Structures are given as C-alpha cells and as structure tokens.
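Lab channel / #folding
Pinned by the channel admin:
"Please post every new chain as: sequence first, then the structure tokens as a reply. Keep commentary short and put observations after the output so the thread stays searchable."

First post following the new format, from NK:
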Amino acid sequence: MKYHILVLYFSQTGQLRDIIDRVLLEMGAQCVIEFKQIEPEKPFSFPWNAYDFFDCMPESVQLIPEPIHPIHTDREDYDLVILGWQPWFLSPSIPITSFLKSSYANILKGKRVLTICGSRNMWLNAHEQIKNQLQQLEAKHYGHLVFFDRNSNLTSVLTVIRWTFKGRKEASSWLPEAGVQKNDIAAASRFGQPILDILQSGQWDIMQKKLLDQQGIELKPGLIVLEKRAIKNFRKFSMFILERGQRGDLSRKSRVLLFKRLLLVGVFILSPVSQLIGKLQLVLNHRKLEEEVEYFKNLRYRENAL
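Reply from TO:
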C-alpha cells in the first residue's frame, strides 16, 4: 500500500522546498507525493527591492490576502497534507495567508495536516495565525516542524539583508552563509521515519510528541519575550500605514519609509537593550515562560497568546 501525500508550499528562494524534500527523502518508496506551489498572481520578486519588501509589512501583519493562481490537485483524498510556510514580519507570508483564505484551501477540510516552517528565527505569532486558520478550515493539525537560522539575532539580520536585497546567500569574509544551516537541512531526513510510522499505525494524536522527541522544535524562552514586544508594535504600525492605502499605493510611502527606519534602529540599536530586559524577565518569570515554551511547541490554539 502506498500513502498519498499532498505538499502545498510557497518558497521564493527554494530553501523551504529543499527542507521539505529532505523531510520526505526516506519516504518516497512508500508514498506518492504530489507537490503544488502556491503562486501569487502578482509575483514577489527575489532579490527584493528594499521598499517593496517593507511595503509588505501591513498586509502581512493584518492577514490581508491577494489573488493566487488556481491550484488543482490530482485527487481529493490524501493520507497527509504538508503545508510549507514562512513568516514575513512575524506573520504568515502574504502568499500563505492568501492560500489559507482562498477557496483552494477547502482541500484541507477534514485532512490530516503537518506544517513545516522555514524561518530566520521568530515564528511564534505566525504559527498562531496558521493554527487559527487551520482550525477555521476544520483541518486536523497533527504536527509542526520548525527550521531556523541558528546564528545570533544580529548576525542573522545582516545575512538575511544581504540575501534578501542582493541575492547573496553564500558566506563572505565577515559573515556566514544566510538561512537555515546546511547541516540542519540535511538532518531533516530524520523526521521521515516517524512520519511514516504514524501513517502506518494511524496514531495521529502522538505525532507531535514523536516529532518533538526528534527535536522538531527548539525554542528558547527569550524568543517569546522579544516577539511579544515586537508584534505589538508591528500591529500598531501596520494600521498606521494602512490608513494611507494598500500595498503599492504611493500615498503611504512616507509611512512605510518611517517604519523601515524605525525597524532598523530597533534591530541595530535597541535590540541589545531588549535582550537585556528579556534576560531579566527570564529570571523573574521563569516558570511562566517555561509553560509558554510548552504551549508554543505544541498545536493547541489559544486566542491572544501573543
């Protein structure tokens, strides 16, 4: 018996597709795998134009969808659906939100879903939004994996800027390679057997535990502290920009540029201060943060968790 797996994903750089391919590497002989890439009607260029990149923040944060090309699958029934996604501005990328809010997402109704995230480092709020959307679609969300850049926050910001705006992923004389580390991508094949075991046994309720046993999600409490502070500011600023129009509207350009400047100041100047405050909170609220780590590593959805 062969198991049928549908993979729905969006990837500008190809990194997320590489991750998914490695996860499925050892399952190919026993599975029929169908890949469908989510394609916006108005493509997002790569490398990015800097202004266009920052102009995406309000729509990303406020989960505003845009048209996507039709998605036609080979069948209606699948043993497992994999949704590959990435965060933009601490929220699901616009193409992923656009898919989840489109009629094509009805394919997920009643299906068993495994989500796979490729991220710089902050993915918590975005995953909360994904969980909420899957719940509304009546999908059965049984598993989640997260792959992220292990470099320090400041280093990963510098490498992702170089990659995003110049298209240079490779290491330079003073910065490492951008993105998820190659050894982490190569090691993603370790998840294939646990996923296959669940397909064979039908014990879907223990899927996330099996993936966590294989270090499917690593989460430091300090990340929760930093992201909680950041997403509040993003939500406020996204509404401030949207008052002047939608993505691409030049009447909001001055506000987008203001956001860009403030964000860069926050990353390069205020970030060390925020990290210090975060460390103090870790000491003062250690037990609560440990409870939150367990929550964010699992699949239950709680409104306003961030």
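NK: The chain is about 45% helix and 15% strand.
TO: also worth noting, The longest strand covers residues 140-148.
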